[in-house]
């Protein structure tokens, strides 16, 4: 380290900070130190490179899905902020009940992370106890978890924006395709997005018709099936609100196959603003997913720096009008 | 550890193996040991839990994109195999030239992984030198990298399957939308998928018309733009081969907006079998992406176990006929 500092013309402390990616080092200085280290092929020992704020320099990120757009996009934003702060991301996919049990049993025993971020999943009481054992900061991203600082959208508000848009267009017979994660049937997103529908219809003085609500496992093909069920009603809806864009895109496939025009014969709205929504000209409620990851990363950095962590951050959603919604035919 | 072993009624060695997720422990025994450890709140020290085969128990996975379907799906398969073997995944996203330089400068200096998996990206000579410094195993997944064991599809063969299908349907004027990653213009996927088109047309005795080839940055909206350019030709193609499904889905949006019917007025084929391809009824060349991740994980485990690593694994692709391709109108 002394050789690196000498060669770069900086103090040992500055060289150390530059190599550990400390935020308060000018980029020119850091470049000079990195160049000197490179010339000397200086190898930082894992011990020496530990951050002042943490112990291991690593954060565990726990996700119930990796390949789905929402989770992968949030993870990209989160990794970006943590890496920029010199923290490494340990990725844990807990896909089913066995994975979850295994993860929560073993992680606390490993003592090898400074913090944990749980993405888009609920934490059960016994899991909470295991996390507490670790004594590290815990942040929830992409969904609220009781007692943990969180970054998430307001699902009730997002659902209201969707159904209110259909009501504004004067639809009176509105169907809902509710999507649940089979592994997490109790996750709050579903109640919030469902309650929004019930409340909006009630406020508009419309009757609650259980035939108009179809609940399916999350996914595009499920959305296609759900739309078939809505089309088989004696009195089908004139508009459909889907809990997510991927489900809505499945519903659109069924409508196309049935020779129905969108939006003339049926309006469709989703939630997310998935990249495919733009390509499919789908009206949707946009949520900033990459931002949720970045904000969760920043929230975690504040906690690691010893700053007081508030209860949470709710990020706004907004209506994106495209070509899949219009007033019903008279 | 002695307490855990005694309580579980096993030897110290067995208890240690069970806690470090060693493969040769019966699941009942492991459950008993975990229960005993749980009762005693036994906390494994990071040192004690190190795998026999490695030093750190961690693998670095380097990806140029996280949020894109291909990369996220491959990562899901890879993480599944590594986690099952008791290895942790450190995720590094190298999105642009600065990230890459920073990553390759710093990773070797950290000495904190047993192996590196590079996903769907080329490695430059100077980066190769940095990796060599680490003296760990390196595997390429989702694309071949010279001198490293790899798991990938044969892009030339996949491209031939796509273009040969269009030729079999008797298309004679076939357009190509070539997608390049702006950050990685030289990545072999592009040449392979492009060479396939050139070779197939030449073998069929068709002239090479440069107007029929449009090269765009990867993405759905780019595909939409590329299709507009093909439609603006005096003599547009009757079929279009896109380098990826997401690009093909963009092309389909343009065709729909132009009031053209698919496949009657224009056939479209992609590569990937993205989940949205099924919803959009897109004919495509399917590649097993989750499998590429899993196979890369297994290849890495073999190398870590000291088994000889072959040159690589090429996974097969196959045609999936859906509703977006048909013979041209006479």
Automatic annotation (TrEMBL), chains A, B:
The keyword NADP does not apply. Gene3D superfamilies: 3.40.50.2300, lambda repressor-like DNA-binding domains. InterPro entries: HTH_LacI, LacI/GalR-like_sensor, Lambda_DNA-bd_dom_sf, Peripla_BP_I. Keywords: DNA-binding, Transcription, Transcription regulation. GO terms for molecular function: DNA-binding transcription factor activity; transcription cis-regulatory region binding. It comes from the Bacteria. SUPFAM superfamilies: lambda repressor-like DNA-binding domains, Periplasmic binding protein-like I. Residues 1-53 form the HTH lacI-type domain. The keyword Transcription applies. It holds the Pfam family LacI. PANTHER family: LACI-RELATED TRANSCRIPTIONAL REPRESSOR, LACTOSE OPERON REPRESSOR. This is DNA-binding transcriptional regulator, LacI/PurR family.
């Amino acid at each position: 380290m002394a050789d690196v500092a000498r060669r770069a013309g900086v103090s040992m402390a500055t060289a150390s900070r530059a190599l550990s990616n400390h935020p308060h080092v000018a980029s020119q200085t850091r470049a000079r130190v990195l160049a000197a280290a490179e010339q000397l092929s200086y190898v930082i020992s894992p011990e020496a490179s530990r951050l002042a704020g943490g112990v291991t320099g690593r954060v565990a990120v726990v996700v119930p899905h990796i390949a789905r757009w929402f989770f992968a996009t949030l993870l990209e934003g989160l990794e970006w902020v943590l890496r920029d702060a010199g923290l490494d991301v340990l990725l844990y996919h807990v896909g089913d009940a066995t994975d979850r049990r295994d993860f929560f049993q073993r992680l606390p025993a490993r003592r090898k992370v400074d913090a944990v971020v749980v993405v888009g999943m609920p934490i059960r009481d016994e899991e909470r106890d295991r996390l507490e054992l670790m004594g590290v900061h815990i942040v929830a991203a992409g969904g609220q978890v009781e007692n943990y600082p969180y970054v998430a959208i307001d699902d009730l508000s997002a659902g209201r924006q969707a159904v209110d848009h259909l009501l504004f267009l004067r639809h009176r017979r509105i169907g809902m395709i509710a999507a649940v994660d089979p592994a997490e049937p109790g996750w709050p997103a579903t109640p919030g997005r469902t309650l929004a529908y019930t409340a909006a219809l009630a406020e508009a003085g419309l009757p609650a018709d259980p035939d108009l609500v179809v609940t399916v496992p999350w996914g595009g093909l499920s959305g296609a099936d759900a739309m078939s069920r809505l089309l088989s009603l004696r009195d089908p809806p004139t508009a459909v609100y889907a809990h997510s864009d991927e489900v809505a895109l499945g519903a659109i496939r069924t409508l196309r196959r049935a020779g129905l025009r969108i939006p003339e014969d049926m309006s469709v709205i989703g939630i997310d603003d998935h990249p495919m929504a733009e390509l499919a000209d789908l009206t949707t409620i946009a949520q900033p997913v990459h931002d949720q990851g970045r904000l969760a990363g920043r929230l975690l950095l504040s906690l690691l720096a010893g700053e007081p962590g508030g209860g949470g951050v709710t990020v706004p959603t907004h209506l994106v009008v495209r070509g899949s919604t219009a007033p019903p035919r008279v």
